[in-house]
Amino acid sequence: MSPDHAHSHHPEPIAPVEARVAALETVLAENGLLDRTALDEIVAHFEDDLSPLNGAKVVAHAWVDPDYRARLLDDGTPAIAELGFGGPEGDHMVVVENTSTVHNLVVCTLCSCYPWPILGLPPRWYKAPAYRSRAVREPRALLREMGTAVPESVEIRVWDSSAEVRYLVLPRRPAGTEELTETALAGLVTRDSMIGVERL
Amino acid sequence: MDGVHDLGGLAGFGPVEIEADEPIFHEDWERRVFRINTAAMTAGLIGGGRFRHSIERMAPDHYLSSSYYEHWLTGLATLLVERGVASRDDLEARAGGRFPLSGPDRGSAPGVSGGDPTEPRFAVGHQVRVREWHAPGHTRAPRYVQGKRGVVTRHDGAFSVPDIEAHSDAKHLEPTYSVQFASRELWGEGGSPGETVQVDLWESYLEDSQ
Lengths: 200, 210
Fold this sequence. Notes:
CATH architecture of the largest domain in chain B: Orthogonal Bundle
Distance between the termini of chain A: 56 Å
Helix content of chain B: 25-40%
Oligomer: heterodimer
CATH class of the largest domain in chain B: Mainly Alpha
Largest sheet of chain B: 5 strands, antiparallel
CATH topology of the largest domain in chain B: Cyclin A, domain 1
């Protein structure tokens, strides 16, 4: 079948996605490029080790240690590395802090750039057109619709991850948590609060 | 390119649906795509700019009707065909049906400025305007900021220019900046006070607007 034929008068059905994946796997394997054992270890690393729990530890540590918070806001990448996190999609981290006057929101309008080492792989909604199109156009309305009311007096600052920097939002520490341990504080920090679509 | 991927500001996509307790991969084929993508990256078959552009070239209806990992699959297959690792007929025979690929690459690497990548031209506080060139190839200057004025708020060191990297084997480093845009600058009367957008941009995307 020629591509021209396939696209002109009688397009045949698209092969199921599983069959297309299998076709590509076979091509790579025949070229000696599919070392399944080694690759499975890498994929397992993404599934097992990278998650929002990492980011939550960073946030909780910043809440209890003012010196760490200052280092984190000054230069995110080495401060995050102090807690053992780093790697692809986390090599150039900038941490943006929510305050009484500014609320931060992270998006990637062109694709789906996301800080993998501290938040894991992105959720489906972050990669979907609705979020990517609206976050830069009507962030306050979008957040309200998602259940996060940001008062009109608070500026919303949207960060479009269009180059090499990846962003982490440092949420505000909830009131009444003065007695909690760092571990307990980390338990309060959600993935969505570190993207900025939720306020704690 | 002014492609379907360049979504900032488009209307009509409806509400954002958050899925509770979402799994990392919804189906096993997504994990397998992640694996072959890792393999191709390790083998040097795909790199940042080229890979992103292979997805940007997808047919708009296919892009919008398929998921993230199908984007990866389509872009990767396109690059393998373009590099001669496989033919389209071969992929379709193996898959037992049509294997949609991305459209042709119409871009070319822009010329380099010749400036010193370690000497940023703009300081924090500098007013800049994003050049408006609607590149036929890959760029990381979203359409919604091209032609718009903003203020440099951060300098991030020098990185390989994606527009060059995606269309040649050359790498050219340039300073990058975070530039702040007022919502009203981007969306006119439809913008809102109290909302700003920060976009990270390479130096050659910008011109002086002081």
